[in-house]
Amino acid sequence: xxxxxxxxxxxxxxxxxxxxxxxxxxxxxxxxxxxxxxxxxxxxxxxxxxxxxxxxxxxxxxxxxxxxxxxxxxxxxxxxxxxxxxxxxxxxxxxxxxxxxxxxxxxxxxxxxxxxxxxxxxxxxxxxxxxxxxxxxxxxxxxxxxxxxxxxxxxxxxxxxxxxxxxxxxxxxxxxxxxxxxxxxxxxxxxxxxxxxxxxxxxxxxxxxxxxxxxxxxxxxxxxxxxxxxxxxxxxxxxxxxxxxxxxxxxxxxxxxxxxxxxxxxxxxxxxxxxxxxxxxxxxxxxxxxxxxxxxxxxxxxxxxxxxxxxxxxxxxxxxxxxxxxxxxxxxxxxxxxxx
Length: 340
What we know:
single chain; alpha+beta; seven-stranded antiparallel sheet; six-stranded mixed sheet; disordered N terminus; disordered C terminus
């Protein structure tokens, strides 16, 4: 199946190596969609991978001609946020090279993460009854097995338009520590078992004032998510629900069988009545298909005291450094806006 798409913008040509196993040599491919997650035993350990759906692509003057679909698997830990839809790669001597991306329309939007304002929709269930999904699949067709398992996060915007987000992209751009969320149970009665709670929600008795949230993690970028996971009952409920989905999808896979593919239902992990989001995608019946999330505003909440796991020298201009128990570990406090 081939499809032509006007290409009004030039490619950005940068080198970035990837190890492709299924893409044909010296052939260009475009990232078309995301598949599901796969749990595999590799070298006596368990690894979680995710699927990327590529399409063979050829450039004909200023048009792109699309060909067959090809699926590749990549480690969640290393690559979940790397591949953007409509970015292009070439397989050269089993090492991939990034060619550039097709420019998409950018939308700066305002929505709400109130539970009444969003829903998870199954593409398979909507393809015959939802005109937006029908128009989307005409413009951006998916392989049948991927189409029939894919889910979209549907949001109502402040101007009453609908925004449809790719479920896996929302997971990659909004959640943190995804490999841990996809690998371990949420909690266990046995203290020796690794769980999401004992790996990500670390408690230490350090005095604090003003009911600040304390987060112990290596990366500052994880602070807001881990703070909510530790202190916010709503976030805990969402992560428990995701974990139960995953366990149910994989629990019946027998030894020697092909690993089951898990297509999660990814919902917002916090409630906020005004969320700023920037996406790139295209209009569809007056509504918006968001292929890639470019920006998502942080949730409101308490101030967070970040306790890093390594020593840091110096500080950012807006950070507050603190010494814990007289140690040489510098801590930064990440301030979030408070609820009215």
